[in-house]
Amino acid sequence: MSLQPASTSQTATTSQDACYISLLGLAEYFRTSQPPNIKRCIQCLQALFTFNPPSKVEARTHLQMGQILMTYTHNIDKAREHLEKAWKLSESLLNFDDVKFDTASMLAELYKQIDQVPLAKAMLRKAIELSQNNVYWHCKLLLQLSQLHANDKEYTLASELLAVGAESADESSATYLKVLFLLSRAMILMIERKTNDVLALLNSAGAIIDNSIANPHQKEYLKVFFLVLQVCYYLALGQVKTVKPSLKQLQMSIQTIMAPNWPADEAKYRTISYKFDSWVTVFKCPTILKKRKRSGQTLKSLQLEVTKTFKKPLKINVWGFVP
């Protein structure tokens, strides 16, 4: 039996793979040029489709096209077209979670931008259903959907999703994520003025932060998040004297994360298994406080600002405290 056809086929496949790699390399070169040459980048990615690539390569390329169009252009219609093709191709593929759920997340964001929130919610619910065996993406998508419901003042639905997230994180022994969900849910309940439920969640989260978070950087950021919520909770109840110890602890935590030996965010999150820093704004909270502290804001002025904020409708988003 001749081996020539198999050899020829193998050579063709190798050559095709080399073309994919070359075009992707060129696309990235043009994207990262100064200034970026997005037109050339898109042309390189578009050229990949002429080789009739496998489904996974095609889906990933459509996702990349959608990402670039959303980031660098105003061509939302074309971005939508590519992302919807990426979702159609990747939805049923096994062992392709990153592309599948990244596509779902970005497509939901696009739908939100064009005021088609029902489509965004439906997309996220479908992706959540498919992601139950991937705790990273399952939690991310739950948070994203709960944010949409919170934006629409559907606080009960947002709270339910966050409760599911806390349970999923607990089942996966993802303690850090569990605390994020508990604190995010406390914020939603605070908006609804369900103070008794808020207290229970804060007590539960506080105990976990004190006793079960080993990573000192994760612990300090969660502590800041917790203390901000605790301050708001006490002020909401008019317990001005009770809030003072929490404000002092908050100041100490801010000083800790401002210390010269505190590592940069990039260094910290490279060692974190679940890199929520890229899409959970809770990490913005200490960053905001850092900037304000550098500008000379004192503990007293912070207290006044929080008090003033709470006298107005409380501006809280499900990812983190937004004064």
From TrEMBL:
Keywords: Cell cycle, Cell division, Chromosome partition, Mitosis, Nucleus, TPR repeat. InterPro entries: MAU2, TPR-like_helical_dom_sf. Pfam families: Cohesin_load. It is found in: Nucleus, Nucleoplasm. Interacts with Nipped-B to form the cohesin loading complex. Belongs to the SCC4/mau-2 family. PANTHER family: MAU2 CHROMATID COHESION FACTOR HOMOLOG (PTHR21394). Required for association of the cohesin complex with chromatin during interphase. Plays a role in sister chromatid cohesion and normal progression through prometaphase. This is MAU2 chromatid cohesion factor homolog. The gene is LOC131801472.
